[in-house]
Amino acid sequence: MDHIYDDAVFKMACDQFQIIADYLNIDKNDREWATYPKRAVAVTLPVHMDDGSTKAFQGYRVQHHIALGPTKGGTRFAPNLSMGETAALAMWMSWKCALANLPYGGAKGGVAVDPSKLSKTELESVSRRYMQEMIPFVGPHTDIMGPDMGTNEQIMAWFMDTYSVYQGFAVNEIVTGKPVSVGGTEGRREATGRGVVYLIDRAMDMMKMDPAQTTAIVQGFGNVGAVAALSLAYKSGVKIVGLSDHTAAIYNPKGIDVIAAEKHVQKKGNLRAFDQDNHVDPNELLTMKCDILAPCAVDRVITEKNAGKLQCRILAEGANGPTTPDADRILDQRWNELFVIPDILCNAGGVIVSYFEWVQGLQSFMWTETEVTDKLFRILEHSFSIVIKRAKQDKVSHRTAAMAIGVERVIKAKNSRGLFP
Ligand code: NAD
Questions:
Q1: Does residue 245's CB lie within 6 angstroms of at least one atom of ligand 1?
Q2: Is 301 in the pocket of ligand 1 (CB under 6 A)?
Q3: Is the peptide bond before 421 cis (omega within 30 degrees of 0)?
Q4: Is 147 in the pocket of ligand 1 (CB under 6 A)?
Q5: Residue whose CA is closest, atom 35 of ligand 1?
Q6: Does ligand 1 lie within 6 Å of residue 149's CB atom?
Q7: How far is the CA of 77 from the centre of ligand 1 (A)?
């Protein structure tokens, strides 16, 4: 590869697409068209820092395709973010939205910055400047932003406010994942983690696993991982034996007090000083003994090096792209002992409830948390059952089945609309 998307994560997304394209026998003429983003924007964000200096941060936004409607996708604030990684995440969003039958193309964006190193004022300046630079390229019917790693409800509120100030009126539907006080929907914050656990429960059911006798390791303790761990422990009744974030990994076969971990993180910001007697090497955590493994942090953590050593029976991919294609080939051989819930199915709860939030914004409407969660579970149930059915019918992996359903829908829409001119 020799272009602006040149990056290992983009290559991984392309490799995954090629596997699906071969399996679906997609016409060679349609492949490049389906892979490369419709549009990619790079912006420089000059920001006054608290010490009086000015720093220029790099921001990105990639819109993958618009065959099904506007694009939709999260915003990542991470130190090494690149255009290629953003493009890969946008492509995965496309297949994810199509699998859930949402009227969206995929998008993703973000800023190459470590948000934990910024003061609140600096974070607000970076966030507002990012949205301001993106105003010509986004809109409630063009491209709708949401949260992702390193961003949160507060940042979405700043995005919404910045966009609205320029329009002269409140435009709630420009971003999702906002606080409920400014048009966010009940249940959005918890949606991704809740969805992950709904699907784990379905998988446990299929595999006749008793939750009371089941253990789990959750990697990542942010929006997705913390909700998933709490919900697994206190709703499903599973024992959490492993937890980690970017500062520490904890393993305790007797069970970890997840509420105490959450309180600790609220106070101290991370898990570094939590339960220090049970700290383990973070690289070892994923291969330690458990029944459910939920990677809910970064991409490419399950590789050809550790895929053969995973001891879990269910792999629930809360993160985007946690498993490389090389690791997938190993997992495919272990299909009868390891049930994979692939990322575009497993973490779809976030974008599904974002879609509800967008619809409520467009219609100035309000649904209760019960209505939202009920609708979420109905969509997830449908997606889960069509993926399992397709995998059984075509004797393919759950990932291949899930991606194939998404890719097919996108290609069908593109071909129906045709290539103009
Ligand atoms: P977040 O920023 O809220 O939390 C990320 C967590 O991962 C933090 O606890 C961080 O300390 C931890 N982490 C970072 N690097 C790590 C490492 N190397 N090892 C272990 N832990 C590490 O982010 P989030 O919103 O929870 O997103 C997590 C993943 O889920 C990402 O892959 C994201 O794309 C995906 N996702 C998020 C949503 C959403 O609604 N937020 C939706 C779908 C998918």
A1: yes
A2: no
A3: yes
A4: yes
A5: 319
A6: yes
A7: 11
Among candidates 17, 68, 12, which has minimal Cα distance to 38?
Answer: 68
Smallest CA separation from ligand 1 atom 15, residue: 246
Closest atom, ligand 1, to C-alpha of 249: 20
d(CA 349, CA 304): 28
For residues 199 and 345, what is the distance between their CA atoms, to the nearest angstrom? Answer: 9
Question: What CA–CA distance (Å, rounded) separates 205 from 197?
Answer: 12
Residue with CA closest to ligand 1 atom 31 = 319
Is residue 87 within 6 Å of ligand 1 at its C-beta?
no
Q: What is the pLDDT along the chain (421 residues), one digit of tens a residue?
A: 568 999 999 999 999 999 999 999 999 999 998 999 999 999 999 999 999 999 999 999 999 999 999 999 999 999 999 999 999 999 999 999 999 999 999 999 999 999 999 999 999 999 999 999 999 999 999 999 999 999 999 999 999 999 999 999 999 999 999 999 999 999 999 999 999 999 999 999 999 999 999 999 999 999 999 999 999 999 999 999 999 999 999 999 999 999 999 999 999 999 999 999 999 999 999 999 999 999 999 999 999 999 999 999 999 999 999 999 999 999 999 988 999 999 999 999 999 999 999 999 999 999 999 999 999 999 999 999 999 999 999 999 999 999 999 999 999 999 999 988 8
What is the CA(29)–ligand 1 centre distance, in A? Answer: 36
Describe the crossing of helices 188-206 and 223-231 by its angle, rounded to 10 degrees. Answer: 50
Mutate to test the pocket of ligand 1, among 223, 346, 352 (most ligand atoms within 8 A of CB): 223
Q: What is the pTM for the complete model shown?
A: 0.97
Query: Which ligand 1 atom is at minimum distance from the Cα of 299?
Result: 32
The response to whether residue 347 sits with its C-beta less than 6 Å from ligand 1 reads yes
Measured distance CA(267)–CA(261) in Å, rounded: 10
Q: CA-to-CA distance for 73 and 17, rounded, in angstroms?
A: 19
Residue type, 36: Y
Q: How far does the centroid of ligand 1 lie from the alpha carbon of residue 405, in Å?
A: 26
Catalytic residues: 108
- How far CA 148 is from CA of 90, 110, 183, 377, 395, in Å, comes to 12, 9, 18, 21, 33
- Closest by Cα among 101, 106, 30 to 65: 106
Provide the pairing of β-strand 292-295 with 249-251: unpaired
Could you tell me if 215 and 388 are in contact, meaning their C-beta atoms sit under 8 angstroms apart?
Answer: no
